[in-house]
Amino acid sequence: MSKIKKAVIPAAGWGTRFLPFTKSVPKEMLPIVDRPSIQYIVEEAVRVGLTDILIITSPYKKAIEDHFDRSVELETVLAKGGKADEASSVRELAELADIHFMRQGEALGLGHAVGLARSHVGNEPFAVLLGDDMMHPDSPLLANMVAATEETGTSTVALMKVPPADIHLYGSAGVSELNHSEALVQIDFLVEKPPAHEAPSDLAVIGRYVFTPEIFDHIDRTMPGKGGEIQLTDAMASLQAAQGLNGWRFEGGRFDVGNKIDYIRTILELGAEREDLREDLLRVVKDFAAKEGL
User: Fold this and answer.
1) What is d(CA 5, CA 150) in angstroms, rounded to the nearest whole number?
2) pLDDT tens digits along 181-221
3) CB under 8 Å to 72, separation ≥6 — which residues?
4) Does domain 6-258 have CATH number 3.90.550.10?
5) What is the pTM (predicted TM-score) of this model?
6) Handedness of CA 170, 171, 172, 177 (dihedral sign)
7) Do residues 236 and 190 make contact, with C-beta atoms less than 8 angstroms apart?
8) Which phi and psi (to 5°) does residue 76 adopt?
9) What are the φ/ψ torsions at residue 34 (nearest 5 degrees)?
10) Could you write out the three-class secondary structure of 172-187?
11) What DSSP character marks residue 258?
């Protein structure tokens, strides 16, 4: 298998859980302190060598494109104002990776969005990173998944244990152990958002995937499911039946920034790791906890 160097980031959703903010601002631009969440996603891809990145957007999300474009006027103003570090950080955004954009004209589901990447990806393996699932910068998850697919030639998806009461929010995987790895498992079947009593396991499919290019043929053959959308899980189930599918089990390091409470937790945890913020942030948290009698 050729070395994986391409990544696809679907970013065309409406972000209804964060209305009214997302009425005019893409959910991917929600700030994690002073960087939008999608910047963390792009940086995650770049850290493992995925420097050819396609972002699938929609017509109202031009702000994402602007964020990763040059802003020469702003750079000049910052430089003239003696803010060289800020000017450098703005300029470096456009140099993170070779970033491309494609619009999903109709909201036809995640499977449809990934399928649009075919013309860019071609006949190469590639990663898919969902913007709602943000990984801690120290997480080895994506690197491990890329290495697993390069070694085995089989697509790999991320799997994480969730409470049974939450499994209906995810795709659920039935798996078999593979002798040579505790983390890498064989996926036997997938069920999209099952009720707890029908779930094959407590392993949920989380928003990191490394696919062989055959996934595109299976997306093309996938009929619309719930809400008239083309479900990526259905296409993965078809891929699994045809040529196999592996899962990489992981624990920790994940932030669900599509969930309001977890979004706030993300800001607190990552903010507390920054030397310029830690002391003041912890003081604010302690003061608030004391005020609430906690």
Assistant:
1) 11
2) 679 999 998 988 888 888 888 899 999 999 999 999 999 99
3) none
4) yes
5) 0.93
6) negative
7) yes
8) -65, -45
9) -130, 15
10) EEEEEEECCEEEEEEE
11) T
